[in-house]
Amino acid sequence: MTYSLPDLCDAYPELIEVVDPIFMCFGSRESFGGIITTIKCYEDNSLVADTVKESGENRVLIVDGGGSTRCGLLGDNLAQEAVSNGWQGIVIYGCIRDIDIINRLDLGVKAINANPKKSIKRGMGQRDLPVSFGSVLFNPGEFVYGDNNGLIISRVSLAEDL
Questions:
Q1: Which residue, 14, 68, 124, 147, has fewest beta-carbon neighbours within 10 Å?
Q2: pTM of full prediction above 0.90
Q3: Residue 108 forms beta bridges with which residues?
Q4: How far apart, in whole angstroms, are the C-alpha atoms of residue 106 and residue 42?
Q5: What's the CATH fold of domain 5-154?
Q6: Quick one: pLDDT at residue 159?
Q7: What is the 3-state secondary structure (H, E, C) of 2-45?
Q8: Percentage helix, strand, coil, to 5, in the chain?
Q9: Measured in whole angstroms, how far is the alpha carbon of residue 49 from the centre of its chain?
């Protein structure tokens, strides 16, 4: 499904919150939306690796990486795994790597920037808890939508198929 954030903002001003415009767009999917799944981690993408192996149908992975720009929390292998398992999009409050490959994948990706250094793997982090960045609170089970205009969240679905 294709989303236009300006149209969603116009149609549902009382239902949406706009995330601060702090992200760059990656991946070939120009718009995405779905049910929020969250991860909170810092320079350790172990939970990201585990989570993208699950079915991502109608889901968007929100990763609170603490805003670190010292390593990439998503690379080409994990992004390909996400595509293979039907994830709609991934939002990283941190960096990604392998952007030339990720930009060819059918996945919506937003991140602060790119960094070629890989993350460490210590098995640290938390999952499915509220996370906050970009002046909004991302709650698991609520909804997020993204396109080249930015990101919005809603407590209720703005699309019939979600």
A1: 14
A2: yes
A3: 89
A4: 26
A5: Glucose Oxidase; domain 1 (3.50.30)
A6: 78
A7: CCCHHHHHHHCCCCEEECCCCCEEECCCCCEEEEEEEEECCCEC
A8: 15, 35, 50
A9: 14
Residue 64 tokens read as 């609170």
Give me the residue label for tokens 């996400």. 82
Domain locations in the chain?
5-154
Average confidence (pLDDT) per 10 residues, the chain, 162 residues? 94 97 98 98 98 97 98 98 98 98 98 97 96 98 98 92 50
User: What is the identity of the amino acid at 51?
Assistant: T
